[in-house]
């Protein structure tokens, strides 16, 4: 990762560029580097911020989607960002939805890609073979359309996380929190513009999830990324970035 992580007042984040603020939210097993092509492209026109979600720092008893959403809202206030565009992948999208539902006045627009919040088919309730490197590699490959995206470095990072007891307990707690916190009944209240950018071959949050989000979010658009799994900004930035660019131009430059 070529961007330096900044530490300020208990927050850890990447910041680059100037202009309208874009806040990028990573997923449960996501790395900041997943957003590198997005940061590279938008930093010339926008103020891009990527907070590290405190998945391994918050008290276990309070760890959940709602506590992460409170953290993100505090970060927005701490940085005095005013209204932001939230862009979230997987769990990050879910967190963005919770922030938006609670503080719609702070969010100008929302972008969801492979977001949880309705349904997800992730690791399931446990890691029955978490000591098996091959099993973890298969699970990471499952995330993408092209298994080659699951590099050894990426698999190593996930393998390390799920074999560290203190980490795996938190990962499972958050995964269960995301499954329990179904947002179907809250989505009609989110009236700001929402762009759904979805991998057509996403097996974690399948295409029907995107279609349901589109149906339930009153001011949403749905954009498909072909030959792509659960993380379009990482697997197909060549398609994800133009979609995001067009949406931002429409929302922010009108």
UniProtKB/TrEMBL annotation:
Residues 22-240 form the AB hydrolase-1 domain. InterPro entries: AB_hydrolase_1, AB_hydrolase_fold, AB_hydrolase_sf. It holds the Pfam family Abhydrolase_6. It comes from the Bacteria. This is Pimeloyl-ACP methyl ester carboxylesterase. It comes from Pedobacter hartonius. The lineage of its organism: Bacteria, Pseudomonadati, Bacteroidota, Sphingobacteriia, Sphingobacteriales.
């Amino acid at each position: 990762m070529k961007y330096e992580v900044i530490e300020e007042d208990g927050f850890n984040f990447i910041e680059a560029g100037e202009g309208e603020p874009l806040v990028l939210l990573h997923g449960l097993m996501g790395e900041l580097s997943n957003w590198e092509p997005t940061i590279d492209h938008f930093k010339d026109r926008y103020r891009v911020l990527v907070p590290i979600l405190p998945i391994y720092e918050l008290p276990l008893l309070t760890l959940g989607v709602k506590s992460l959403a409170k953290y993100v809202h505090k970060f927005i206030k701490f940085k005095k960002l005013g209204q932001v565009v939230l862009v979230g992948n997987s769990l990050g999208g879910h967190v963005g939805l919770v922030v938006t539902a609670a503080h719609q006045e702070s969010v100008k627009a929302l972008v969801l890609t492979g977001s949880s919040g309705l349904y997800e088919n992730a690791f399931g309730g446990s890691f029955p073979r978490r000591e098996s490197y091959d099993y973890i590699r298969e699970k990471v490959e499952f995330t993408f359309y092209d298994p080659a995206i699951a590099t050894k470095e990426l698999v190593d990072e996930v393998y390390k996380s799920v074999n560290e007891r203190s980490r795996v307990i938190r990962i499972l707690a958050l995964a269960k929190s995301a499954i329990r916190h179904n947002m179907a009944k809250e989505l009609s209240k989110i009236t700001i513009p929402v762009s759904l950018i979805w991998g057509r071959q996403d097996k974690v949050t399948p295409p029907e999830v995107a279609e349901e989000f589109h149906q339930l979010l009153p001011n949403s658009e749905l954009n498909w990324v072909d030959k792509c799994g659960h993380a379009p900004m990482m697997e197909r930035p060549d398609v994800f970035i133009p979609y995001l660019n067009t949406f931002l131009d429409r929302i922010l430059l009108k």
